[in-house]
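name: query_chain
kind: protein
chains: 1
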Amino acid sequence: MCDERRAEARPERPGVTELRLSAFAGHRGAVLPLGPLTLLTGRSGSGKSTALRAYEALARLGGGARLGEAFRDPAGCVPERARPDAQRRRGFRIGCTTDGPEGPVRLDVAIQAEPELRIVGERLTAGGLTLLQTALVDPSRPVVQASWHTAGSTPVTRGPLPDDRLGTALLPLRVAGRTDGQRRVLAAAEQTVVALRSVFACDPRPGRMREAVPLGSGRLLRGCDNLADVLWRTRTECGRRHAQLVAAVRDGCAGPVVDLLAEPLRDGLVRDGLVRNNRVRDGLVRAVLDRGDGVRTALGLLGDGELRYLALALVLFTGPGVLEVDPVAEVPAALQTLTVLADGFDRSLDPRQALELVRLAARMCERGHIRLVGAVSDASWAAGVPGVTVVHLNRERS
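structure:
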């Protein structure tokens, strides 16, 4: 295939196509291929949630977060049987591959967790060429020595970078972009950062979704606790998208569903079959299903499976403007992709609900503006659904 055709085949929207857990918690040498819609499956303890945690941490680093923000429990990321070296150091290694206009770009990071949290090595490569490499040279200083590709009169440029930030995310601040080599480094770093950022980790909590909530920002939290607040905002923003959401909810909830909406919570006192003191509680709204003929069912009366189905459907139909994520403001929206990390994607769902939800996810992911990585206990119900990548995690604990 000629270079022109190969370039045409490259995706315009950068995305993560592989997650590597070289030595992370219970994983050793794990390589997880990721498609637009990926289901991680395996028995309890196989490391599904751990893989999602690693992905989210990489995403935070790609967004410029410090190590302590990305890894709240760094000791828990160290492989269980890892032994400290002579300096009492232990750590872990993770990485990923992104694909996009620059082709496959690999990022690998070695992180020291003990006795202090710091990056001790990072490598960014593309086409067999090392574009960035860092190493901890002097443990007494909070920096790593970095070298990046220049391909000018000086083949490599060297300089210090902080040991608590991902060097790839800092390159645009350090590389001038004057030579072809520097521009290649910047393009690969940008692709990696754009692919990693805009991640929404989601695990709906039905117990919290049943409660009335105060009106707020209208941005959905990762536990979907404030679903009623979000519906209050979004129902009138896009009628077509809301109609699609209602149709999806109709497929996953029992009984007729005419609409899904939020309404003010009222203080009602029932006497002699009549509602007295029907006053609106300031700022409180609850979500309800409109059953038709004036009948409305509060979401508090729905089962856990119906609530989780409803919340995940809402996530799939919304975007960075509604979800509590960090969009890449400097990149046009047409080139961005939102990645949803859904732990327990099928939790509390019956097989019919799980199948309908994954079909919905497949349709949304096919459009290219959203990707999903979900952890499920069993993916047999997804067999035959086009566009689904199933990754089986059946490892032994290390």
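note: The chain has two domains: 9-198, 210-325.
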